[in-house]
Amino acid sequence: MKNIYFKATIFSVLSAIALSSCVKSDDYDVPELQCNNRFDAANHKLSDLVSIAKAKPTSSDIIAEDYIVEAYVSSNDESGNIYKIMFLQDKAENPTQGIEIDINGANQYLDFPAGALVRINLKGLIVQVSNKNIKVGIYDPSYPVGRIEPTRLSNYMARVCDGQKPVKVDIVPLEFNSIADALKDDSHINQLIKIKNVQFQEGDLTKNFADDTGTGDRYIVDKAGGSLNLRFSNFATYAKTPISPKYSGSGDITLCLSRYTSTSNPATTSYTNQAYTRGIEDINFSNPRQATGIVGGTDLSYLGAFTEDFESYSVDNALFPKYFNYAYRGNRYWQIKTFSSNKYIQMSANAGTGVFQNLFMVPVDFTAANSLTFRVNVGFYNGDALKVYTTTDYVPGSDISTATLTDITSSFTIPKTPTSGYGTLASAGTYNIPAAVIGKGFIVFKYIGKGTDGTPADPVVTTTIQIDDIKVQ
After folding, report:
1. What's residue 289's pLDDT?
2. Distance, C-alpha 137 to centroid of its chain
3. Which one, out of 6, 131, 203, 273, has a CA that is 20 to 30 A from the CA of 184?
């Protein structure tokens, strides 16, 4: 036993000395990490694909030589919302070209995360285009472009190395203040973008992000009336998440912009702009809902005394810098009209379809104001179509449903004739503003009408309303 103990002790001491010698020495080497590029340097730019893309590639369009481009991965399929496609762009910031690669498998983020710099060798692949949407894939006679099998993807695509590790950077989305700006000139297809001041359309607020049995189409809208279709897969981790209340407000959203063209007719000029979120964290709708359909209001002044006779505006004008013209329902606005050399504003649901709720909003300093008068006329009366309100808590540019409206219509006389033709502009009466109504606010002239929409059981109200000489004093 003593012998064994002695040998063990000697071994421990020698081991400690050896370990100590290694730690104190400055001669040891740290193994150098190696990351080697699979493909040679790029011999083409991503934008070069535009010139070789075809709507209906044939087998003769399969690229036969090494055709190498570099690009940054801008999409991420980790959440499951982006499925069997990958979006890439030529620059991490301020890109000028984007493409889509079709892959017959998911979880590509494990090998190609967002921000990864990759080289793509298109030898053996085809490049397809429909309405400026550039796609890369295999040749498949049954489709405009076929999907690459995941097991073969490494034959065509690989990460770019900086000598020690694969290159990965932050992708900076292009930012836009409206949907129209994002879609302008078709310049940003297959690129990562951020659109500010948008929200889900009202009809989608009661829905989940995706449908129960398939991809859901949900629409974002902006104040200018722009609309964009968002595609939400029922395989997404947030597919069953309700849009309301957490995402019912307004704000900004980051998207991979895409474009759909029917695969049965890839040469058609008809298409649908659509987009995908990479994850639910791309949606930042923390602000109150904003109004859509508002024009004007760029030069509001809250006054206690003024007269508006509309003579300074051109006929058919609907843009009033001093007032909000708000198409809350329907797509019509109060417009300037003229009769017998006199100008006024007019609204009607005649020959329209569906519901019309259209507000003409006049800013007022209620503390300084005492009364309101205006002249009114109707044409082709078939139902009451005008309401008048005051509000002191409306936030300019917001949805009118968030404001408190006080109905003062009963203070005025609104004609109910003629049922054919037009009457004559006449005083509607005087509303004395209560002393308790103070602060900055708005007088709201609200047109409420309904055109024909195939449901004759509902009353049709298409009465024309004309208003002139709004006077606050």
Report:
1. 87
2. 28
3. 203
